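tool_log.txt
---
The assistant was asked to compare two proteins side by side. It first ran the structure predictor on the initial sequence, then on the second. Raw inputs and outputs are pasted verbatim so the downstream comparison step can read them without reformatting.
(1)
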Amino acid sequence: MRRTSAMAVATIAAAALTLTACGRNDAGSKATETGKDVSSGKATGTITVWAMGAEGEKLPALAKEFEAANPGAKVNVTAIPWDAAYQKFTTAITAGTTPDAAMVGTTWMGEFAGNDALDPTPPAIDKSAFFDGAQKTTEVNGTSFGVPWYVETRLVYYRTDLAKKAGYDKAPTDWDGLKSMAKAMQTKAGAKYGMGFQAGGVGSWQSIMPFGWSNDADLTKDSGKAYNFDSPEVLDAVKYYQSYFTDGISDKAAPATPTTEPDFKSGRVPMFVSGPWMMSAVEKVGVKKDQYDVMPIPAKTKSSSFVGGSDLVVFKKSKQRDTAWKFIQWLSDPKTQVKWYSSSTDLPAVKSAWQDPALTADTKLAVFGKQLETAQAPPSFPTWEQVVAGFDTEMEKVTKQGADPAAALKTVQQQADSIGTGQ
């Protein structure tokens, strides 16, 4: 998930917990499944595809090119608002009225596959073509259900002109360096807050976990069969994140979107963590291209970040399975991925597409591409959205009230154990 949709989806999921089974033991098979082959030849027949937000609005134009290459095929795209999508999908799955194919948020995959709604990826699709972290978002219990369509990851944005005033000519590469730079932005460059971190609350896990993953944290244990929030690696990351608030470097009263574009332009908050869409957003308010840059998430043991975006899936109820998969294969072609990027700015999930001049020409974009090589996704457990809501609540206590990180994570772990993985 990406842009404002990430927060919207998290909010929807938190509000829809009654729709999410608690600790299910019957959610799908634990055995690895093998997808069936897709027939050769051109696609035929009519398929219905659901897509959300801007993607739902732009996809019909691209689908016409698929139809031109497959004269016997017709693609009907239904655009769905993000705030209605989760419930529309869950209702359709229950009623057996799902579309043939759809764009699905990465954190929904575990639940939908657990409900036996998704068709396993056919062997003809080369899973190694995608960024590893993105490919893992399609996998549930060792089975791939769909493909990554587009991806996004998070980097640190910073004002290069103000960084020079703070004494930094190049970006730091480790945790201590990042914090020192953020503090210097206050003491030497006149910033109100050196770093625009989210002060807990809905979706804050997406800001905190990049530091956990950059400290070798694993959110699962027992061979991937259980949640693992109270590990030393996650604890170190939460303590580090909290220190920005206790030291006054980040704003305890910050909303879910802690840094606005005007804050970045004025220098009030000259650093924040966000995705690639913020490049055009900050430039739109007057930040010049040479006034800012992006850096990878600084490392404790390595540099890693959150990989989001959306996957493409085929539902088991589809009566046009072959055509649905052929459409997804076509959307996964590197040339199609680059063309889609040109019209939507969605970053390609296919690694080879990043060699195209349309992407290599932008040096900032190249940093996102590099981060995608190590970016990670959360566990694909059906109960992830429910469990992470508890994590977000506890993190708000940590950032705003100075609660003990170890006690907070112990609470999160107890809640996670009580809810279960849903597998």
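(2)
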Amino acid sequence: MKCIMDDLTVYTPSPPAGQNALVVFPQARECPELPPSGYAPLRGSAPLGRVMLRDGRSAWAVTGHALARELLSDPRLSRDRSHPGFLAPEEWSAEVGTHGASPALVADPGDEAPHRPPLPYLTPRRTAALRPHLQRIADRLLTGMERQGPPADLVSAFALPMSALAIGTLLGVPYEDHDFFEGCSGRLLRGRTVREAATARAELERYTGQLLDRKRHEPGDGLLDDLMRQDGQGSLDRARLVTLPGTLLARGHETTADLVALAAFTLLRHPEHLAVLRAGKTPMTAVAEELLRCLATPNGILRVAVEDVEIAGRTIRSGECVVFVTALINRDATVFAEPETLDWDRPAGHHLAFGSGVHECLGRNLVRAQLEIALGSLFTRFPGLRLAVPAEEIRSKPANPTSDGLLELPVAW
């Protein structure tokens, strides 16, 4: 299969299936920058089709942009992972090295208000204040890469640690503790065994408890500090504060790192688009938005119906799983002209990479900032950056319903 963004032939349909056969979800990407070719039949079922989950159940697949926006705001679709109809995390956790997410960010609106970080902290203005810190993180990591010399794995040397340290900075982790925080994050999310991940979580929670004690005497400027002030008013208890770093890492660390690595790979694969970026002919904000649309990480957004939903001439029954296939939603030709093409001049703000509605990703402004700073810093520091192996040898992660990324990205300069 050709790995070319501007070629409509990239969606090579699977062999004709039997009348009752369904497309399997999730599937791994054959080409990292493109949706799995096996999803091609779903385009013909837009905006609502059916897929087969890996546990043998069938589920609804939302592939149309307008319908996705409507259903993502529908309270009859829940993201409660404890619901028996939800696609269970254990179906994929063993393969990708994750061990489930804290319930703090997966409850429904009525239950989650005390758990989720307040929206005002992650506004564009507050995120802008973090940009100098994010720039220092990127510069430090790239200096380390430069000193070590090529080749380097851009995933482990840059994308993953930058994402972890960005979350640490958001929380208010002191600079001198960054190495510990990064190491603990790596073992928590990519530990080889459940025991290793559990040990890392315990270490992180113990550290966070000690950090909270320090901050009570020496307050700083971070999310933990803000929440501690609320905690003094009885809105949050210590146990929830202690588990917050693990929650944010579970929900935001690896997906952001995946995005940075996939974006770098895509730009290296398309030197004509990279040349425009390097020439400063287009704002980095526009580049980031178009890459968010095209790369569409994560693979899907998951929900479960808690009531019957009559929509698009179909009935989604209570208890049925619903998958929002973001890779197809963000390539809906009724919304995006020439959706297979990278277009830095495309109007921003229409993609659903961060979801929509009450559960739209709270960290979206921070993710945007990381992507812009990471790419700008990377290609400025290494103007001769290139893939160190043929593109066909770059391996994607195993099929995962909520994350798409690269196992590694060898580069040289």
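---
observation on (2): The chain has 14 helices and eleven strands. Residues 1-19, 89-119 have pLDDT under 50 and may be disordered.
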